[in-house]
Specification:
Blueprint lengths: L1 H24 L4 H23 L4
Helix pairs in contact: 1-2
């Protein structure tokens, strides 16, 4: 079970890192970048809670 949780956390971190890299290339204002990152983190959290019943 711990390996599965760690794998999910690594995958989520990878998705977040990729999103941040893409957003930084879009030449958005800092507050827009932070808004997009916040929305992504919330989505990832909802997805994790919905699938597993609790946050990893």
């Amino acid at each position: 079970m711990a390996g599965t949780t760690a794998a999910r956390e690594v995958a989520a971190a990878g998705r977040l890192r990729t999103a941040i890299q893409i957003l930084s290339d879009l030449d958005l204002a800092p507050e827009e970048v932070l808004t997009h990152i916040d929305e992504l983190v919330r989505r990832l959290s909802r997805h994790s809670v919905g699938r597993h019943g609790s946050l990893p």
